[in-house]
Design a protein that fits this description.
This is Very short patch repair endonuclease. By secondary structure, the chain is α+β, with helices and mostly antiparallel strands. The protein has a single domain, classed as VSR Endonuclease (Endonuclease, Chain A, 3-Layer(aba) Sandwich), CATH 3.40.960.10. Strands 1-2-3-4 form a 4-stranded mixed beta sheet, sandwiched between helices. The termini are far apart.
């Protein structure tokens, strides 16, 4: 019988990875600051759909818009992601599972009537805020017309 042993975790790598933020990252804070400056009000790190155990970085509940600011490494940015050379199989599978989860999240939220906006961490926060603001205004107007 061939039993696989778990790989030893390098304490230095483990320590470094434990300090990687999953929320309130610098790119998120920059976009949130710009949105707040424009008097757009939103919720942070909430579930757009209560029964679905996934959160969005920024949630505009009345307009039903969920915003995700994706990290280039963790979400496989086509421009900036560089595959790890150490433990390459593990990291390739990890990034692939993140992408699959992102797709499932998008599909579930869209099916529930939400607009899902995804941006890369390297994108300019002002440009990101411009696009979000434009879509929020458009979405609010559209939802108001439908409710009449």
């Amino acid at each position: 019988m061939n039993v696989q042993r778990p790989q030893q975790v390098d304490p230095l790598v483990s320590n470094r990875m434990s300090r990687v933020r999953s929320r309130d990252t610098k790119p998120e804070l920059a976009v949130r600051s710009e949105l707040h400056r424009r008097s757009l009000r939103f919720r942070v790190h909430q579930r757009p759909v209560e029964s679905f155990r996934r959160t969005a970085d920024i949630v505009f509940r009345p307009a039903k818009v969920a915003v995700m600011i994706d990290g280039c490494y963790w979400h496989g940015c086509p421009d900036h992601h560089r595959p790890s050379t150490k433990n390459a199989t593990f990291w390739r599978e990890k990034i692939a599972s993140n992408l699959k989860r992102d797709q499932e999240t998008n599909e579930t939220l869209i099916a529930a009537g939400w607009l899902v906006l995804r941006f890369w961490e390297h994108e300019d926060p002002i440009s990101v805020a411009d696009r979000i603001q434009e879509l929020i205004i458009s979405r609010r107007a559209s939802l108001q017309r439908k409710s009449r």
